[in-house]
Every structure is written in C-alpha cells, then in structure tokens.
What we know:
Layout: E1 2-4, E2 15-18, E3 34-37, H1 43-51, E4 60-64, H2 69-79, H3 86-106, E5 110-118, E6 133-140, E7 145-148, E8 157-160, E9 167-170, E10 182-185, E11 196-204, E12 214-216
Parallel strand pairs: 1-8, 2-3, 4-12
Antiparallel strand pairs: 3-9, 4-5, 5-11, 6-9, 6-11, 7-8, 7-10
Helix pairs in contact: 1-3, 2-3
Amino acid sequence: MNLITEIPSHSCDGLSLTSIPEGLSAIREPDCSAMIWQRSPLASFQSWIDELAPEQLPKARTIVSPEKMREAVMHVCDICETPAGPERDMLIDDVAALANIFAELMQAPYLLLRLDVISSNACRKFHTDTVTARLICTYRGTGTQYGIAGDGAEPERVFTAPTAAPIVLRGKNWPTIPQTGFVHRSPPIEGTGETRLVLVLDPVLDLEDASDGHFVH
Length: 217
C-alpha cells in the first residue's frame, strides 16, 4: 500500500478539488463522493498551533446554530485555556466561517460541532460515515486519508488531505452514492508522538433526532 501525502493533479475517482469555498457545492454533482478546498495556512498560524501543549487545544462536542458558532468556539477556547492572541482569533473565525459555508451547503439550521484532540489510532479503518455529509478540517497534524477500495479491502493507494484543507464527504445517508468505492479514515498515529486537532461538522436538520451533544441556542 503506497502512501501519497500530496494530492496528485489527477486526484482519484469520486474526488474533486476547488480553490474557492463556493466550489464545495460540487459535492452535489452525481459522480462526486468528496470535495477538497485546496488552501494553505499562514506559516505564523501553523507554527502557533503546532507548538501548543495538547491540553491547550480546544476540545468540544456540541450542537450549535451557525450564527452562534463563533461564540461557542470562543467559549471552548476559554475553557481549554487556549492562549489569547491573533492566531486564536484566526482559528475561531475559521471554524465559524466553515460552519456557515457548510450549513448553507447542506441547508442545515444546526450543526454537530466536534473539535477532537487525537493522539491515538482513532477510526483507522477505511469507511463511509453514517451521515448525510461531513466536513473535516485538520488544523494540526496529518490530514484525513482516503482512497478507492472494494469488497471491504483497503485501498491500494492512500492519499492524504493537506493540513488546513477542508474535505467534504458524502455519507451513507446521502440520497445517492457514486459507485467509486471512495472511503476515508483518520491516519494511524499511535506511538508517533503526534497530536492532531480535527474539526468535524455534521448537519443537524431536526434537534429531536440529535441524540448526542448539547445544544447551544
């Protein structure tokens, strides 16, 4: 199994790339399983977040309306004692911006927000999520890995989404799934000393169906 850490120009079946946030709407195209917004973090921001102690990274799981996302993430940063400054403001603003983009894309009045701090092999098996769609953005550490597989096998070629590049993935609950065999996983990092900070957003259309998480209204 070859590990490719950069997205090649031809990409892989079912994946499309965009250089602008509006391009994420192509996830609705019939043959699209995933979209990546190609972007790079500011060097100063990346240095700041990479150097934070793991316990200072914001960690949360809650249901939030998009217009309250910035306030909610700021509160999480306060609780986790994420150091104040321009870089923290960048992180908060970026999560809020991605939340608004994704909520509009999915026509979702609420989002399940997860900020996960990961240092183990979380979800290391390749899979498709049991959601309509999901946005994942890795702010620190190795990005989401993906590839094409069939019959429960692992992909022969594994690609890695760049750090800070949001990826939107269709889930099992999407009305139609392209028959590309597109799957993804969290990278196996246990024993490497790496700590990842990962943003995960899921659409919530009905609060009564959202059995987990707390509601920030």
